[in-house]
Amino acid sequence: MILLRRLLGDVLRRQRQRQGRTLREVSSSARVSLGYLSEVERGQKEASSELLSAICDALEMRMSELMREVSDELALAELAQSAASDTIPAPVRTFTVTSVTGIPEERVTIKAPKETVGVAAA
């Protein structure tokens, strides 16, 4: 099962780490407890929209950027999940997830059915 809170946390953690900032720095800026922010990043807590907004502000990130990255990851996870449930082995394809800035973030290899060729295949 794909958990949205886990995807949100992963994106927030990567953004914080890209900036070279600690949990303490971001939690202080967002006025969120260190423990709670840690739980959000690990996908253990469901963050409210108000909390996500405060964290995004602290990370100098637009909420739409966060949601776009989460949406892209969700689409890839759904493809992977769908491919895993197929009885016919699907070809392996490598996708590059590109951030809003246009910088490739990471390469993800998944088994994807042929119909998904239109999804930014690398």
Automatic annotation (TrEMBL):
GO terms for molecular function: DNA binding. It comes from the Bacteria. Residues 12-66 form the HTH cro/C1-type domain. InterPro entries: Cro/C1-type_HTH (IPR001387), Lambda_DNA-bd_dom_sf (IPR010982). It holds the Pfam family HTH_31. This is HTH cro/C1-type domain-containing protein.
